[in-house]
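Why does residue order matter? Because the sequence determines the fold. Keep that principle in mind as you read this record.
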Amino acid sequence: MQDKWTFYCHRITLKPRTKQDKWYLIQRISGAKKVNSYKAKLQYAIDSGIRKANNWDDFLRLLQESGYEIKLGKNISFKAVGQERFTHSKTIGDDYTEGRIKERIELSKNNRQNKRSVHRHSASNVVDISTNPLAQESESFARWLKLQNLKAIAKSWTAITSNEVTDINSFYAHIDQLHDKLGGLQSKIKNLESEIHETKNTIQAINTYNLYRKVYENYQTADDKDGFF
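Structure:
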């Protein structure tokens, strides 16, 4: 045990002479662990915000909703509830500078759009073989496209018959039903987002209360309230 104290004390330029030295060492080590914990949580929050944000302002809003205070300047920095000092995001790594975060937001947004585009233009859509350059060059690929088109048509026919679409009027009636259903779902989503926002504000208020509750209790019992602070 004494060897470990000696090793750690030398690491932070202390000499293990007294109990005060050991107490100071414990504070330094525990403080470093807290710093690392704050950085790890900040890194997770930034990564999560990048995946969800559509732009820089949206990213800042998401971080604020996660309970972070943000200071803009030459280097952007963040401070969590209960944290004494701001943390420069660039100290986490090269991917967490302001410029790099903006690049990652744009890249993530493009990736999401590409995925939606691929989904919209999947094999469920009928492809015009006569204008497809690969189909013109490869007979086997053209046969494969014909098969995919037949599957897409069969799938569409199944969807039409299962929804009792028999003519153009019933088709438009079904479209109207889908629009009404979509509007209801969008309304529910907005209500849920509002509830989530209120819950996050409540959690932040509770964290702030827990952080300063002891200070307030000491103030209430202080003899000299004016000189307390």
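The longest strand covers residues 69-71.
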